[in-house]
Amino acid sequence: MTRVWQWNRPVTVREVLEDLQQERSIAYTTVMTVMDNLHQKGWVRREAEGRAYRYTAVSTRAAYSAALMNEAWSTSDNPAAALVAFFGMMSAEQREALRDAVRIVQPAEPEVAPEPEVVPAPEVAPEPEVVPAPEVVPAPEVAPEAEVAPEPAGPPESADSPAPPASTEGDSAAPGTGPGR
To answer: Is there a contact between 43 and 57 (Cβ–Cβ < 8 Å)?
Structure first.
């Protein structure tokens, strides 16, 4: 697959064989079997050209790598921990490449002034329940009383009635009457 991805064009088994033979000795049938297996797995498609086939990659190497990473990540019982461990294995250059990739994937957010901090209103005691005042029934109107002159303290004196006897100090009271008896 490496050769197919590098060349980024349709290739024959013979071209791949000649390139690999520069590094090591390998048989034509071995390369042909590997290319057929890649076709069976859906990694390459092929078109007949005479008695041979031309093979073309179905996806890019980057898409293949992403699929492998996604598969590995999705099978983890703790994806976040797997990512942390993976990032810990990365070189500084790889982490920078990751940052660049995240910037590409995430749309640029317009710069917006920060929103003012919302301060909660102080708690206010609930207003007391307003109880309606009892209905006031007006008192019935009463006619004003007529002015009456005060009555004298004793019976009215008239010229015909005798005046009460005046008491004198020397008088003695009748026997058996008087204070203390």
So the answer is: yes
